[in-house]
Amino acid sequence: MKSLKTGLIVVGSAALMLLAAYSNTVQATNATNKPDDFLAQIPAKNSSTAPTLIAGTGHSKESKGGQVVESGPYHLELVVEKEADKTHLDFYLQRGDNHQTIPNAKVTSQIQMPDRTQKTVTFTYDQKDQHYTALLPGKVVGQYQMKITADISGQKVDGRFTFSR
């Protein structure tokens, strides 16, 4: 009888600990997925070409050392360089497995700053270095969330990136 009571106490305690751990996980998930979350407000344009973050997929030769997103037949890469009073953004927009540069796209980004304000930044094409560039003024410390949209002859390609300063 004593072992039965002891067993029930142990099982009950374990169940309470699991329930508490699950509760904390749900609260943490809900805290990060607030309805006013910047990325949650941006609808995906086309689910068939939804961007996928990749890691270690053989793009090391073509990679410029930034965050890489494959979106349909496109290779998107963001390289962030922090400067004293601004952030320099390099965006590589390439097509297919051979990573051919696409020079004639209209590239814009929506950026949520660490203080939850939003900025729109337009990228310009650098013919010499064959990539798009932009400057983000300011030096607010924290995490930045970006949605970059490239309009390639009427076809929109989206990529989502984050970086910290």
What's the arrangement of secondary structure elements?
Layout: H1 2-32, H2 38-41, E1 52-53, E2 67-71, E3 74-82, E4 86-95, E5 100-101, E6 106-112, E7 118-122, E8 124-126, E9 131-137, E10 143-152, E11 155-164
Antiparallel strand pairs: 1-2, 2-3, 3-4, 4-5, 4-9, 6-7, 6-10, 8-9, 10-11
Detailed description of the structure:
By secondary structure, this protein is an alpha+beta fold. It is built from 2 helices and 11 strands, in the order H-H-E-E-E-E-E-E-E-E-E-E-E. A hairpin with a 4-residue loop joins strand 4 (86-95) and strand 5 (100-101). It starts with a helix and ends with a strand. 19% of the residues are buried.
Quantity of strands, as a count:
11
Rg measurement, Å: 22 Å
Name the CATH class of the largest domain. Answer: Mainly Beta
Q: SSE order in H/E notation?
A: HHEEEEEEEEEEE
What's the overall geometry? Answer: elongated
| SS-based class | alpha+beta
Total domains, how many? 2
What keywords describe this structure?
11 strands; Immunoglobulin-like; seven-stranded antiparallel β-sheet; alpha+beta; 165 residues; 2 domains; four-stranded antiparallel β-sheet; 21% helix
In short:
This protein has helices at 2-32, 38-41; strands at 52-53, 67-71, 74-82, 86-95, 100-101, 106-112, 118-122, 124-126, 131-137, 143-152, 155-164. With 165 residues, the chain is of the alpha+beta class.
